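Milestone 3.1: sequence recovery, worked example.
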């Protein structure tokens, strides 16, 4: 098995939000939906794994992230945490305890009442074993974020473009492109920090809006399509690996694993067709082997 990329000397051995904020270079975040992938990303030194509601599309084949079931996302989050811990331990450890795992609260899991929102957020910590809980917000969610914080839930406030509002906007789109929108996002950030959010995720905004957010940020900011200024960067893993047919404009693939999967699949089809696989590595016990041979000769 290949060795992991060594961690920089300044990288903390145990990851916390506080440790991330003290890094001298941006930290890396990727979406992840299963234990096996989490194990390998932990060995790669990825700092944060986001179990996003994008699993609706990437795992379940649904057309919209708002269709992601809460119970399924909780189970996926727990699996990612187990994989992250197993990949980040032992001789191959990049971070003691593995990357931080961020659970993503799906559509309507925190909208109907504050009590239900806090309860569901807590489930991501207790059942999903998450280290952080993300929810898409604006300033109107300050009250529920404050209650989550009071209950001990480390909240990541997702501002800027908010994909869960697709039914209101009509399509997935960028945000913060007018002066009024920039001011609104800055107010959202101020409200979330005041409510106790430990981290921000800023999605699909122009450089000017990102700069305004970074100017007032008191907590780490993860960007996605928000320029290079942010403290960290996140992408959907399948976009990074070249597994999506139409990735977002801000997602530059680092590999083309889709083509590699096609090649491997075709090679397997060919080997099976030629009966080049299937040889059994097992053998019968000697006594049973002789008895079977005698029985076959009598037929």
């Amino acid at each position: 098995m290949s060795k992991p990329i060594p961690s920089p000397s300044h990288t903390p051995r145990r990851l916390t939000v506080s440790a991330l904020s003290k890094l001298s270079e941006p930290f890396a975040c990727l979406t992840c939906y299963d234990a096996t992938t989490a194990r390998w990303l932990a060995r790669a030194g990825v700092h944060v794994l986001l179990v996003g509601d994008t699993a609706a599309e990437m795992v379940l084949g649904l057309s919209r992230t708002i269709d992601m079931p809460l119970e399924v996302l909780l189970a996926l989050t727990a699996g990612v945490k187990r994989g992250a811990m197993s990949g980040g331990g032992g001789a191959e450890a990049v971070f003691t305890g593995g990357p931080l795992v961020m659970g993503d609260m799906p559509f309507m899991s925190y909208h109907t009442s504050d009590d239900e929102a806090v309860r569901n957020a807590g489930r991501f910590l207790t059942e999903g074993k998450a280290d952080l809980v993300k929810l898409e917000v604006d300033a109107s969610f300050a009250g529920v974020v404050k209650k989550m914080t009071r209950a001990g839930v480390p909240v990541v406030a997702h501002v800027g473009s908010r994909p869960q509002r697709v039914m209101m906007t009509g399509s997935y789109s960028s945000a913060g492109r007018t002066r009024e929108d920039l001011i609104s996002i800055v107010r959202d950030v101020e409200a979330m920090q005041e409510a106790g959010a430990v981290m921000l995720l800023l999605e699909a905004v122009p450089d000017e809006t990102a700069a305004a957010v970074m100017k007032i940020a008191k907590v780490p900011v993860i960007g996605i399509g928000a320029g290079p200024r942010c403290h960290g960067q996140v992408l959907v893993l399948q976009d990074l690996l070249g597994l999506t047919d139409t990735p977002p404009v801000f997602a530059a693939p680092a590999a083309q694993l889709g083509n590699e999967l096609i090649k491997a699949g075709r090679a397997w089809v060919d080997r099976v067709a030629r009966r080049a696989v299937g040889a059994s590595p097992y053998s019968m016990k000697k006594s049973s082997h002789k008895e079977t041979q005698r029985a076959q000769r009598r037929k």
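The radius of gyration is 23 Å. Residues 261-298 form one domain.
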